[in-house]
């Protein structure tokens, strides 16, 4: 089974601390910026970064829906890691300064892909599709924090 990876990034016109705090605010900002591919959003524990437990369903395609239960950690400054209890998926958000009053947000998801022909299609198409979904989330995040 091969590892599948999807990455996207964006420069946001807000300082890194503001952007990181918005991403880590699962009970507030984060729920507002989730695009339509996410449903049944629920904070089950915590709600602010480290120690949070968050649930959502991610509709990656018309037929593929992931039921995600995410444990959140903050292993280093500016880094938020969401580990899905229901799969091998791990999503890492990194927020770093990118000049005065701006920051770079990089989001990377990795998971163990399927085998066979299904795995081939997953490795070929899933990274682009997931990157598109995260682009939408980053657009909404930028709109929220650049107010």
How would you portray this structure in words?
- It is a single chain.
- This protein starts with a strand and ends with a helix.
- The chain has 147 residues and is an alpha+beta fold.
- Helix content is 30%, strand content 39%.
- A 7-stranded antiparallel β-sheet has the order 1-7-6-5-4-3-2.
Q: Work out the helix count.
A: 3
Helix-strand category:
alpha+beta
Number of β-strand runs: 7
Ranges with pLDDT <50 over ≥5 residues? none
Identify the overall geometry.
Answer: globular
Strand order of the largest sheet: 1-7-6-5-4-3-2
Rg from alpha-carbon coordinates: 15 Å
Biggest β-sheet: count, sense, barrel? Answer: 7 strands, antiparallel
Fraction in beta strands:
35-45%
Q: Secondary-structure element order, as H and E? A: EHHEEEEEEH
Helix proportion range: 25-40%
Please give the alpha-carbon distance between the first and last residues: 44 Å
Mean pLDDT value = 92
Spell out the key features of this protein.
7 strands; 147 residues; globular; single chain; alpha+beta
């Amino acid at each position: 089974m091969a590892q599948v990876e999807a990455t996207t990034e964006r420069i946001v016109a807000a300082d890194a601390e503001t952007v990181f705090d918005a991403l880590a605010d699962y009970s507030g900002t984060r729920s507002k910026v989730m695009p339509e591919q996410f449903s049944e959003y629920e904070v089950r524990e915590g709600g602010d970064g480290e120690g949070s437990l968050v649930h959502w369903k991610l509709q990656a395609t018309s037929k593929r829906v992931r039921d995600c239960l995410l444990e959140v950690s903050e292993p280093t400054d500016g880094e938020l890691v969401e580990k899905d209890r229901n799969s091998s998926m791990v999503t890492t958000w990194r927020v770093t300064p990118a000049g005065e009053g701006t920051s770079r947000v990089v989001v990377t998801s990795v998971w163990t892909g399927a085998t066979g022909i299904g795995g081939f299609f997953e490795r070929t198409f899933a990274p682009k599709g997931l990157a598109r979904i995260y682009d939408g989330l980053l657009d909404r995040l930028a709109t929220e924090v650049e107010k």
